[in-house]
Each structure stands twice: as C-alpha cells, then as structure tokens.
Specification:
Elements: E1 17-21, H1 27-39, E2 55-59, H2 70-73, E3 75-79, E4 86-90, H3 91-97, H4 99-108, H5 115-121, E5 124-126, E6 140-142
Parallel strand pairs: 1-2, 1-6, 2-5
Antiparallel strand pairs: 3-4
Helix pairs in contact: 1-4, 3-4
Length: 147
C-alpha cells in the first residue's frame, strides 16, 4: 500500500474561487471558516507545508456583527516605528472608516505567521459592499453558517 502524497505541482490551476456574504455574521466565527478555506484544511488532501487553499472573496463586510460589548471595548493597535507612535482605535471607529480591514485583520491573525501564511492571505479579497470585480473567475457562492 502506498500513501497519497501531493506534490506542489498544478496547485494554482486547481484553485477554486468562493464568494462569502458576510451580512449579519459574527466576525470571529466567519473568520475561522474563511481561514480554514484559505489554508485548505477543508480538503482531504491537505498538507501542512503546502498552500492547498482556495481564493475567497468576502462581500458586505460593513454588515458584520460583533457580539456583546466588543464594538466599544475591542481595540486595534498599530505602531509607526517611531517613539510614541502607538495608534489605537476601537472596533466601532474601524467599522465606520474601513470595515473591510476588520475582516482582513481577523483572518490574517488566524493564519500561520510564516511565508506560507502570507501567500495564503494574498488569496483573500474583502469588499465593504456587494460589488466585486471578480466575476470573470466565476466564483461559487459559499454559505457559511455561524452558530
């Protein structure tokens, strides 16, 4: 008996495109499902050191939901690299200014912190409203249930 072992050839040609509607979905639960698809963990031939995942287009990012009081209490921080350069903003402010960035950050932080994780993150596209320019790739609609 031999064990199936995927080679790294033709991975890019076999990738699918999925569209996920984020309307009224919880940010964390939605992000875990998206990260799973980007890594390829939903496939039986998943291999930890290969980028087996598919492309994901997220629409309606402005309509995602935070449970409890996270909208006021959750903080996003970034640093400019200069002394005293720490910038902090709440989730509410981020949702008003750049709602797609909230989903991007949630998914990015669930991916591996390696070169492979960066390659996986490049397959994610997030849009604040329902319009997206990826209709030429013929993406499949993917219903993600968040309980």
């Amino acid at each position: 008996m031999s064990t199936y072992f995927p080679s790294g050839k033709n991975l890019a040609e076999n990738r699918k495109w999925f569209v996920v509607d984020a309307k009224d979905k919880t940010v964390g639960r939605l992000s875990t499902r998206i990260a799973e698809i980007l890594m390829g963990k939903n496939k039986p031939e998943w291999t930890p050191f290969l980028d087996m995942g598919d492309h994901v287009v997220v629409i309606n990012a402005k309509d995602v939901v935070f449970k409890g009081s996270k909208l006021e209490q959750k903080k996003y921080q970034r640093h400019s690299g200069y002394p005293g350069g720490l910038k902090t903003s709440t989730a509410k402010k981020m949702m008003e200014e750049t709602p797609e960035r909230v989903v991007e950050l949630a998914v990015k932080r669930m991916l591996p912190k390696t070169k492979l994780g960066k390659a996986m993150f490049k397959k994610l596209r997030v849009y604040a409203d329902a319009n997206h320019p990826h209709s030429a790739q013929q993406p499949e609609s993917l219903e993600i249930e968040t309980i």
